[in-house]
Structure formats: C-alpha cells, structure tokens
Amino acid sequence: MSERNGQLHLGAFLYPTGHHIAAWRHPDSHAGAGSDFRHYVRLARAAEAAKFDLIFLADGAGTRGDNVDFLSRTAHSYVAQFEPLTLLSALAAVTERIGLVGTASTTFNEPYHIARKFASLDHISGGRAGWNLVTSSSAHEAKNFGFDEHLAHARRYERAVEFAEVADGLWDSWDDDAFLRDKDAGRYFDPEKRHVLDHRGEFFNVRGPLNVERSPQGKPVVVQAGSSDAGKALAARTAEVIFTAQQTLADAVEFYADVKGRMAQYGREPDDLKIMPGVMPIVGKTENEAREKFDMLQSLIDPAVGLALVSTLTGGFDLSGYPLNGPIPELPETNASKSRQSLTIELARRENLTIRELYLRVAGARGHWQLVGTAEQIVDALEDRFVNYGADGYNVMPALLPGSLDDFIALVLPELRRRGLFRSEYEGRTLRENLGLRRPVSRYYRYPQETASA
Amino acid sequence: MSERNGQLHLGAFLYPTGHHIAAWRHPDSHAGAGSDFRHYVRLARAAEAAKFDLIFLADGAGTRGDNVDFLSRTAHSYVAQFEPLTLLSALAAVTERIGLVGTASTTFNEPYHIARKFASLDHISGGRAGWNLVTSSSAHEAKNFGFDEHLAHARRYERAVEFAEVADGLWDSWDDDAFLRDKDAGRYFDPEKRHVLDHRGEFFNVRGPLNVERSPQGKPVVVQAGSSDAGKALAARTAEVIFTAQQTLADAVEFYADVKGRMAQYGREPDDLKIMPGVMPIVGKTENEAREKFDMLQSLIDPAVGLALVSTLTGGFDLSGYPLNGPIPELPETNASKSRQSLTIELARRENLTIRELYLRVAGARGHWQLVGTAEQIVDALEDRFVNYGADGYNVMPALLPGSLDDFIALVLPELRRRGLFRSEYEGRTLRENLGLRRPVSRYYRYPQETASA
Questions:
Q1: Tag placement on chain B: N or C end, fewer CB within 10 Å?
Q2: Luciferase-like domain: from which residue to which, for each copy (chains A, B) (predicted)?
Q3: Which residues in chain B have their CB less than 8 angstroms from residue A41's CB?
Q4: pLDDT tens digit string along B35-73?
Q5: Could you count the other beta carbons within 10 Å of the beta carbon of residue A298?
C-alpha cells in the first residue's frame, strides 16, 4: 500500500513512572523510579534489545510550577528525578548500541559547558549522544538562575540560534586526525589541526577551542522540539531530529512539509532532519483490553491535578475558578511555549470540550498524540502518518513504565516488523548511522585536490 | 611507634596517561587514554578492588594556556579529555563501592546546575559522589565564558563562599522522608517537607527547591584544594576533604594545624575535615629500580615543556628568555593560584635551583610531593606525615597510568596494611562512611521532643 520506502525510527521517551499523569498511582508502577538508577538500566536495556534508535530524556532545570498542592499530588513537573546528562552518561556504560538523547536548555546554560558535556558523552558512548536543545518555557526555572522574569519567547530563540552556532563551532575545534600522539617526536597533536573559534556575538563571547577531541559522530545529534514559527525556523536551520506534538494526520503532514520546506534556504537536504512526533500508545491484545488499561489510568487522575495541568498547557492561566463542566474561557497570549498552548486550545475548540473533558483528553499524554487499541490498529495509525510524510518515526511515550514499554515491544514491534517498517538489527554503530544521518564534515576540512588525470 | 591510631585514607587521582608531564611519551603509556572510556573503567575497578576511598578527577573548563607549541608537546593542560561529571557518572555504573570525586568551578558555573548534577550522581552511585570545589586559576578558561579578564582572586573566593552556601542550601530542599509516594491517598510528597531556599545574595539569586530528592549521603562530600589564606578560610568553613600540596613535613604539619584550628569558629570539629595531600610515588622492588623508573620518565621531558610548565607554576611569567642554567629571576605577584605559585618559588629559593633543575624537580609531579623508593621507604614517609598530624590520608597521583597505579597497589598497599595503616575491606557503603564523615543533618530537621520520663 505504501509508496514510501524505508523504515521508521523509534525513540523510547523515558519518564520515571511513565508519561501518563497518574502512572505513579497505578498498582504496577514503581513510584520511586525517579531516583532509582536500576529502573533506568532495565528500561534502557529493554529498549536496546528491541532495537530502538534512541532513548530520550526531557528536562526541567527546576520544578515546573509552584502550586505545592498540585505538585505534591503528581510525580510529574520535574519535582524530583535524575539530571539527564548524569543519567545518560551512567546508562552509556551499561548499553552498547542505543542512542542517548538528553535535554539541556540554551536559556540557562553556557554553550562551552553544553558542547563539552555532549562531546564527552559521545566519546564515552562510542558515538551515541544526542542533545535535545530547548529554550525552556517555564518562568519557574528562570528563578533558579537569577532571573526574576523569564526571558521573552523571541529573545530565547535569538539566544538559542547563537548558542547552537557556538556549540557547532566548538565541535569543529579539532580535525578528526589532529591527535598525532607521536611519542618519539614528542608531538601530541598537530597545531595546524587545532582551531580557535573566537566567537564574539550578542549573547556569547567564547574563545575555544573545545577541550574534547572530535567525537565519534563528528558532532552529537541535535534534537529540537519547538513548533512555533521561531521553533520551526531554528529546527530547519540546526536540528537533525524534531520531537513534536501533532494530534491529527493533517496537522502532522502540514508541519512536516513546512519544516522540511524551510531547510533549503539553509543549504540542507530534507533527509538531514528526521521528524519524530511523540505518541503515547496503549496497546492490548484486544481493543477492549487496551481500553481497560487506558481507563484504569484515567480513573487515577486526581481532578485537582487535571485542572492544574490544563492550566499549564494553556499558558499558566488559572482555570480553577471556572466550572469543570463548562467550556474553556478566552485566554490571553502568554510568554509560555507557543506550540503546546495553541495545540491544546485548538483541540478544545475543535471538539467543543469542557474543562473536565479537556483534562481527561490531554492530562494522560500531556498534549501528545494518544493511541489506544490493538497492535494492528496502532500500527495502522503509525504507518498512515509515515507513508503520508507526516513523520519519519516516533518518539514513543510509554504511559506506564516499565509495563507500557514492555507491551509496545511485545505487541507493536512484531507488527511493525511484519510490515517491514522497523529494523530487526541495528544498521550501524552510532546514533547517526542508525538514524540515517550523515557524519558532519568539519567546517575546516579541505577536500584533497584532485590529482591530474590523463 | 605511632601515638596516632586509626587508618589513613587514599584517593586515586586519575589523569589520562599519568601525572608525570612526560608520561604520554613512555613506551608503556596509552597515549590516547584521554578519550578512551575503557581505560578509565580499568583504572576505577583496579582502585576499587584495592579499596581506595575514592577516585579523583581534576578539571579545566578549557585548555590551560594558549602557547600552541607547548600544548602540542604535552597531553596535560586539559587539551583534550573527558569532562569529569559525564565520566564519573559513567564510572558510577560500572563500580560499586569507590567514591567518585569530580572538579567543578564556582567561577564559571551556576550553583543550581552543580548542586543538581552532584546530587544526581550521588543517587546514581548509591552515595559515592564528591564535588571538588575550585575557583579556577586560569584566565584562559575565563575566555570560554564571556570574560575578557579573569575575575580577581579575592572576588573568586567571595563568589565561591556564596556558591557553596547556595549549593548546601539546595541540598536541604527535601527532608529525608519527604517522599510519601502514597498511591491510595494520591500524595507523592509531603508539602511540609519541601523547602524553598529563596536565596538572594551578591552573586546569586536562586529560588529552589532543588528538583532532586535528598541523596544517599544527605549531601555529596565537598572537597577543596586551595592553600591561600582565602582558600584555607573557605575550606575550614565548608570543605570535608582538602586536597593540598606540601613539599615538606614541617609545611604539612603547619598547614594541617592551621586549617583544623580555623574550624571551631564555624562550629565544626577537626574530624569533620580530612586533609589529603597529593603525592606522586614511584615505587620499585629496590631503590635502584624506583630511581630508574623515575629517570626514564624525567628523560622524556621536552625542555620546551619543562620551561613552559615552570612559567605556569610561577604565575604565567615567561621564563624562556632566561638561561636554563641560571637562577629564577624576581617575579611579580599575579592573579594566578597563590598556593602553587608561592610553593614553587619557595622551593627554588630554598634549594637554590636553576631554571633547569627546577623544571626537572617540579615538572614531574607539577609541584606536588614526589616519593621515589621502595615500598618501605615510601610507607615510612607516608606514615611519618600521618602520625605527626600532617595528613589524614593521601591523594595518590600515579606518574604513569595504569602502570604506576598497579605498582602502588602491588607494592605499597601491602606494606601499608602490614603496618595497620590501610583497610582491607570497605567500612561502609557510602563515600562518607568510608571517609569517616558524618551524614549531615538537614538545617530544617527538628529533633524529636524528648518524651517526659519518670
């Protein structure tokens, strides 16, 4: 049925007890997962055995929100869990093939530290590191870094563009063959193959060079998530993977064409970027079993949590004064993440949802695409988006961990493989090789002169 | 012979090819060790099997220096190696008992990130994390973080004091029993046991709370290295381990008494701080064998490297115009590390060394204490400092890796054990337990009211 050849890519988006907002309350959940390294080892090894391209870790550099009553009722909102770079580095030592993608903010970090840590992780892991570049939508995080007010959305993206340029430049500090390590001659490196960036810009002055040698992938894979216009422009320019959220096939196809269409102006090919929307699949051996699993999780949502979550997704607006069975009121535009805000409000308007219906719809997957059904039904939907150029793969958000990841591996992957849509063995050694991304050539590389031929 | 009871503590200070400046040129060296994770796994596991308290990683957030000819002749100066936090996190996954101490600068970091990453590492490792707090002496590092000039020595220490206070406060964000994870009641944590720091100071405004739960050690172990007056004051106030450099027993005893004597004014007991000077031991089965090993390394020192290194140790002053066989000229005071500068110059004056003699003396261990001899001779020296209260233990700086670490384990440790000076098995599960440091009580902890008794 498909005119599109090839296979799709899969990420395993790990979140302590699972992505469903009430997962931690499920009888099968490990409620202390956020501080249990062995839990993550088990998940990462399971995803690797199943040949996922990568594991993905989101991040908040601080708790998102300060409504303590709400926070105390949820394991979400980055109240207490591992910091992604330390966790991924530890997981690098106990895995061999799976990609390791972690989130770090351009708003609260220095490019030298970020370029260096991800390059170091790329070496430790033998070429499996990826950086999910975010600008951070939460004003609560800003307060942990000396800002009374959060940087405005547009300024965050201006800073992010320059941040990404600096990191990219630092990763070219050393040519691939710069380190001679010639013991007899006493030359550790070739001075000609060391490059001082000396970046001077609006946000950053960074001299360089990076003090990590060029890494196995040349550069770690750069991942982004923004769906605003500024986010799409940044992604078209610098991202190699996009993790996004679209509820419908039409929206997904439009987003895909929009972003890929913007790449030519930056001298990039469409295949240089893989679009991998988030999806929360709940699979059962029958449709009824899947529905029961989902309903079980939904029944565990505390109304106070659902309401607070909708407030967050719609831009921090406090909805607690409005009737749960009434419509979403008109909301002012805010400084929060444009993409999640508009997607959530559009969903409510399109389907004429009450506040309660909306929280039951979005609380589970927090605005991401939910699929509840049999393996065939779920693979139908995943294939549909893939063959219609709405996705190059998916970032799988297991509702409950480890249960929903195990279910996906046991039930959905065999069906994807039966249809030829997913690998049975890794194609390469590095994340880039498995994603089908080229190893970037250094900006300082000079192609050898062609030799004169007869 | 000893009036001092107890055992000494040992750190294994890992540096890619070894601490001797010419180690990378040695026939037995692994010259690419700085980017080879397996090299570090081997070292960490060997140190753990030998029951070292900890492994220690120094750091530079950038290459130290920009004399490219010098840099290209040495594997030192942080030209290219792993970033410590990523490396230690990875090593946490493949070790079980040894402490993991990494360096991070208070001058180029944000306290929220540092407090969070070390707390995360403490969880991942099951209570084995330590943070070596440095203020960074290199102006070259500053240029990677937007500073044209390095922050002055005194300002760096003022910032470090506040930085340490903020980190310490963030580590108390959650009481030990804050996380209820009560699925039925829907309470993930107890709001009364969450504490918002809301620090507002001269250098930092940090709201908190930290989004990592209180870690196995309560707080990671805080290590410091400064030997200046400001450094000693900071250490007496906040450090739990001091890594220092003294050449003579008299200096070591004076330093020890000075720092421990300052602690009372901060309400601390002398035992709350372990002083562990660096030492580079080169051991042989005979004194002659040890001497030959040392001479072999010394013979590999490129004169250009030795000269540049002395310049660095004496404060960045360029000595290349002076005769190698002449004395050290008068030098101006600089903004560099006071401790290393004065220690190096004192050494030269005391022993009336030429520039060449000085570089041969200090280039090897870069200003640290060198011991060349048999196991008995080396243990005599180590015991002497220990029983005379010049040290609580040592940070062992292997000249060549893995060879010198293996030699220390095979030859020196049995002699230390024969004299009852070093453990044969770990005393505890955490780094604090092995170092004999108390688990800190949270500032918010209220001792239970004593019940009325008859």
A1: C
A2: 26-392
A3: 93
A4: 999 999 999 999 999 999 999 999 999 998 888 988 999
A5: 16
pLDDT digits (tens, 9 = 90+) for B134-187: 998 788 899 999 987 778 889 999 999 999 999 999 999 999 999 999 999 999
Nearest Cβ partner for A89 among B63, B90, B179: B90
* DSSP reduced 3-state for A404: helix
Residue that has been written with the tokens 């407030």 in this structure:
A311
Question: Which amino acid belongs to residue A282?
Answer: I
Q: Nearest Cβ partner of A146 from B34, B188, B204?
A: B204
- Would you call B61 an interface residue with chain A, using a CB distance cutoff of 8 Å? yes
CB contact (8 A) between residue B183 and residue A29: yes
Write out the E strands in B247-388. 274-275, 278-283, 369-373
Task: Report whether B363 contacts B294 (CB < 8 A).
Answer: no
Share of chain B above pLDDT 90, in %: 73
Question: What is the structure's pLDDT at B75?
Answer: 81
Q: What are the two backbone dihedrals, phi and then psi, of residue B200, each rounded to the nearest 5 degrees?
A: -130, 115
B75 Cβ under 8 Å from any chain A Cβ: yes
Asked if residue A204 lies in contact with residue A115, where contact means CB atoms within 8 angstroms, the answer is no
Say if CB A409 and CB A50 are below 8 A apart. yes
Q: Which residues contact A5 (CB under 8 A, 6 or more apart)?
A: none
Contacts of B163 (CB under 8 A, 6+ apart): B106, B109, B111, B114, B133, B203, B204
Residue B203 Cα, gap to closest chain A Cα (Å):
9
Asked if the Cβ–Cβ distance from A123 to B93 is below 8 Å, we say no
Cβ contact (<8 Å) for A207 and B123? no
Phi, psi of B179 (to 5 degrees): -95, 105
Length of chain B: 454
* Domains of chain B, each with CATH number or no CATH: 9-280+369-435 (3.20.20.30), 302-363 (no CATH)
Among B61, B68, B86, beta carbon nearest to A112: B61
Mutate: best of B25, B38, B40, B72, partner A, most A CBs <10 A: B72
Which CA distances in Å does A318 have to A136, A140, A274, A313, B341? Answer: 20, 16, 36, 11, 59
pLDDT tens for B410-434 read: 999 999 999 999 999 999 999 999 9
* A183 to B27: CB separation less than 8 angstroms, yes or no: yes
Q: Which helix (H) or strand (E) holds B446?
A: none
Give A-chain residues touching B302 at CB under 8 angstroms: 186
Q: What is the mean pLDDT of residues B183-200?
A: 96
- What is the identity of the amino acid at B359? Y
> How far from B344 is each of A333, B21, B74, CA to CA, in Å?
62, 16, 20
User: Is a pLDDT exceeding 50 seen at residue B278?
Assistant: yes
Tens-place pLDDT, residues B244-254: 888 899 999 99
pLDDT in tens, A342-389: 777 777 888 888 888 888 887 766 668 999 999 999 999 999 999 999
- Please answer yes or no on whether B181 and A71 come within 8 Å at the CB atom: no
CB A121 within 8 A of CB A71: no
Query: CB of A222 within 8 A of CB of A238?
Result: yes
Q: Round to whole Å and give the CA distance between B341 and A82.
A: 40
Are the beta carbons of A31 and B183 separated by less than 8 Å?
yes
pLDDT given at position A206: 97
For residues A196 and A211, what is the distance between their CA atoms, to the nearest angstrom? 11
Residues of chain A with pLDDT under 70: 1-3, 332-340, 364-367, 449-454
For residue A327, the 8-state DSSP code is B
